[in-house]
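User: Before I run my own analysis I want an independent prediction to cross-check against. Here's the chain; please return only the structure tokens and, at the end, one sentence I can use as a sanity check.
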Amino acid sequence: MRLTGARAVAAIAALIMAATLATGGCGGKPATQPQGAAPAGQEIRIGIVPLPHYAHMWVAKKKGFLDEELNKAGYRLKWQPFGLGPMVSEAFAAGHIDMGVMGDFPAFIGRAAGTDYRIVSVASTGPRTLALAVKKDSPVTDIKGLKGRKVATTKAAYGQKLLHLLLAKNGMTTDDIQFVNMTMDDLATALVRGDVAAGVMWDPLLTRLEEAGEIRVLADGTDIYEAYAVLMASGELVDKKPAAVDAGLRAFRRGAEYLRQNPEESKKLLLEDIRMPEPLLAKIIGKFNYDDRITDKFVADMQDTGAFMGKIGLLKAPVDVQAFIRRN
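Assistant: Structure tokens:
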């Protein structure tokens, strides 16, 4: 039976809350230490969030690829799940983790605030996982129809950039709408209730509301915004223990390949931590690209993101993008 209105919103809120819970474990015993590696058994603390954005990383953990690659390099894993992305940023700032995942926006905000970390790979891209949507029965049929209306998203998150790009593509700016800063939880309720005309949201909320028949997508990031999530490593790890960074990257690539070749088994593994209905998880994972390569396009996109964030006042200081990104 289809859920509507308040029942749908309650179900969505429960889903989001469940998706923030996770369990973790430590790695096995280290293998023989190669020349130039750290002392055998030195711990590498990796912060992770239970979201489909990082599905291949969870697969790498659960299949033992992370333990294996780190052990071979002379390290052991400490897997540290966090309920929300901002908690990973806070853990980096406090020196509590060595590697971790987050969106490109929080990565820039932390760097500008003085956190000593660098982007070491792309975690995922998903242009279709981020979209500007309206209520299913909204009279608005295109972006120009939002002029003068309330449009919401979370400030200082990547939905803000998509909103700016979509408005610009249609000859508009945020001055042409009533911008409202909202969390995803609040946006789900406000949009379904009709308190706002539209909102930029991302998965898993986006697909969940679509599947419930509550919203209609006006435009997503296709051909305009990649919606990057990134893998970060502390400056100390990058400078003094590059073998650990490389081991982690090898493991995550193995996870991505295993996910591609064994989707059914991978889904069952992921459902233990990324808690949502299996069909929903499968649909969302299908929207993501887990290619980790740092390309010239990625660097250019990060330069554009840094410039955009600086222009709208989200950064405390300019970020040197070339120094911020580690390229092999």
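Sanity check: Residues 136 and 215 are 4 Å apart (CA to CA).
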